[in-house]
Amino acid sequence: MVTEMNGAESLVQTLLACGVDTCFANPGTSEMHFVAALDRVAGMRCVLGLFEGVVTGAADGYSRLSGKPAATLLHLGPGLANGLANLHNARRAGSPVVNIVGEHASFHLRYDAPLTSDIEGVARPMSHWVRTSRDAASVAQDGADAVAAARAAPGQIATLILPADTAWNPARAIGRPPLVDPPRKVDDSVVAESARLLRRGAGTLLLLGGDALTEENLRAAGAIAAHSGADLMATTYMRNMARGAGRVSIPRLPYPVAQALPALAPYRTIILVGAPPPVSFFGYPESPSELHPPGCTLHRMVATGEDAGDALARLIDRLGADPSAARLQAPERPAAPRGPITPDGIAQALAAALPENAIVVDEAITTGRGFYAAMAGAAPHSWLSNLGGSIGFGPPVGTGAAVAAPDRKVFCLEGDGSFMYTPQSLWTQARENLDVTTIVFANRSYNILKHELAMVGAGNPGRNALDMLELDRPDLDIAGLARAMGVPARKATTLEELNQALENAVASSGPKLIEVML
């Protein structure tokens, strides 16, 4: 252990003492003492990202799989600003993240040097907790407080701003590891009301999200459904859902409003278990924002930060349900498909090839809209998707997931437009030799935006409008881009070629990319 230390070394020691041992980083001059501290204090794994959106997205993916915070190291206000989109996604997912953001030395701020900015102002919209260390003696406890804030249920974004002189000046101690409160228990009256609503009979839905989508909690919900006759549905997007053969399989709420409205129309009662009230992703002319039918009762049984597992277990007891009565998904591994590339054929190929215990990161958007249902009976796997909606989520989250779970294969399902927001993730995957297979669906357009253009009633698009929605002139060579960053890549123009590429990905380790030509 370091006995004589500076503020940066005291912070690294504090993070380690608090259980934070992984840092995704894109540092600059103001962070050099923290970088140097990584050599003087053993135990911190630091992973370099070539863009801050990769760094913050990787911290999100790491936290979803490990269940604990990752740290990020970012350079001043502009570096933090570059990472905000994926911090927004992490915040929506309830992922705990500790951002360490360098700042100019305190004596230098009054000179308004080019990189000076209001870092606290940049941080606040995407952070639950923000603090600037006032001196080197404060840094360690500030770090411990940041970890405590990040670990508050269900998981929060904490941003600690570190002026350069607080990092290089002497410090004497490390911070006290935080005492973290467990998730709040749901009040008995709320569980009792849920039981009363379930006893009313047909027309009741349990809408599940957040931690209600773990394997154990899905089994509990399945037992409740088997006893009461209620239906189960997942939110459209999920932080980390247990899926596949041997698990409780449930549909998810469709994204398109035209599909979501009839999906919820049969229900007069919706019990929210870790899920928000169902609303459309955007507002459209002459279309409702609330997706539940008029007159439907919404009852929030488990709110954000509350213990879903405990509430479901108590509901089982109150109903007198059999905890083992949940209906489990039978294995349904299809034969490898043949012929031309189609979305249904891709889904079948993925379901056939997916190995047991894989991690699927879903940012396939339009091409992949049917993948979720088609892969219900595949080998047991985890399903991660984007709760915040800011694209460029998939490659960084897959990177962080692979760092957190090196014994599991990661499959990142990507649209070509969203992939181009954070392609630098591939370089980090190559450098760290991460077992991530990125599958990019190359339709050479922002197809989702063509759908949205029609939904908002903006009229028939002309050439200028379509130019904003198509990825051509020139066409992207995504496989070539991957190879340039050290990731082996191939193109698939038929389902047979896709099957072969997936078979190779399952049989070998390390990063790979498959560009599926649509």
UniProtKB/TrEMBL annotation:
Residues 5-106 form the Thiamine pyrophosphate enzyme N-terminal TPP-binding domain. It is an enzyme of class 2 (transferase). One of its GO terms (molecular function) is thiamine pyrophosphate binding. Gene3D superfamilies: 3.40.50.970. GO terms for biological process: small molecule metabolic process. Residues 379-516 form the Thiamine pyrophosphate enzyme TPP-binding domain. Keywords: Thiamine pyrophosphate, Transferase. Belongs to the TPP enzyme family. This is Putative acetolactate synthase large subunit IlvX. It comes from Oceanibacterium hippocampi.
